[in-house]
Amino acid sequence: MKARESPHETDFTAAANAAGRTGIRVVAGVPVALCSDSEVDDARSYASEVLGHADFSNNNLLFRRCQDQGSEHIVEHAASHARQIERDIESYGKNAVEQVLDAALSLEQYIDIDQVLRRERYTEYLPAAAHPTDDAFRARFAALDAGVAVTTHSPRKIRAPLPPHPERDLLWFIATYAPEMESWERDIFLAVREESFYFYPVYATQIMNEGWASYWHARLLREADFIPQAAYLDAIKCHSDVVRPVAAGEQVALSVNPYHLGFTLWEEIVKKSGLEAARQIMREDDDFSFLRNHLTHDIAADMGLFRYQRQQNGQVKVVGGDIEALQENLLSEKYNFGAPRISVLEVRSDGTLVLQHDNQLDGRGLDADRSRRVLDYVKRVWRRSVLLKTVDAASQPVELSADSAAAA
Length: 408
Fold this sequence. Notes:
Layout: H1 7-18, E1 25-27, E2 30-32, H2 37-59, H3 61-69, H4 74-92, H5 94-106, H6 136-143, H7 170-177, H8 183-204, H9 206-223, H10 229-243, H11 258-273, H12 275-284, H13 287-294, H14 297-303, E3 307-310, E4 316-319, H15 323-331, E5 342-347, E6 353-357, H16 359-362, H17 368-382, E7 386-391, E8 397-401
Parallel strand pairs: 6-7
Antiparallel strand pairs: 1-2, 3-4, 5-6, 7-8
């Protein structure tokens, strides 16, 4: 007896018949009706890499934490945000909406991943001072004149400073505390913030994630004996092109291919510690712990990795062989989405927003012109003066603003 086809199977069968095919073709568990033979081979080639990415994003704890706070359905959320912006354009005009969106996108790196996505406002007042505890001296003092009435006063509420500590989440702070921000403007800021939360794990695990997908791409191709020879050779060539350390025709590169680095480290980890240990690392690490724990001096030497300095005359000088320095050099651009470390320092009584650049942690200065452009964006939505404390080329303190060049 022939099993009854599901409605979906019927649809696929109809599509296959309309395309002149005899039946449904399945690639990596997915029914394919309208692909040509070459497209099916491409799908088969890339399926193993896609499965590697899916495995990583579904099991890595950083991915899970960020997705659980927001949503796994980022495409639907992004589409919803786009529809909301279209409605805002109809209501408030294209120019007004673009100014707010430009301001939000200029700060899209400035979230605090150590905080939750749905944050509460700060406590408005400082906690009341604790009453002194009774002791023998206080008891004797109170008994000296029992006829004197003791008056008590309610403790005066003291407003807490804003913010109570340097705040790294600029998008949240501005959306929450901007004095005259309208609700639709806040929604845009919070939408950009939500999408930044979602994409942070992609940035913070790029080496691991691309390496994990490349590892499984290569392994599944090596172990799959059902792939036609021609398709196998094409897939292996594709893999080789992706994980090659330098571009074709080049002998050396001054940047690292994350696919090559991640793939090499996963191969070494599986060879040395086994697949289960590799899967535990995949679940628990990000690129910071991954490189610090597993990029050894021997692996770096085998890969030809090195640190360099670009001199004033344009020449490149190779420096040092310290593995820890090499690890930190590879990771330096991954902190804070690669953006300078800026936090909210205070809101002054006149509403001025004061930002602070942590140049010591950054180890670099700021582009003053670009900084003032961003400050101008922020001022449009904060609607008060905005200052940024940083240092100049001589490491002297300066304040930048959208209105003036720089004042000492």
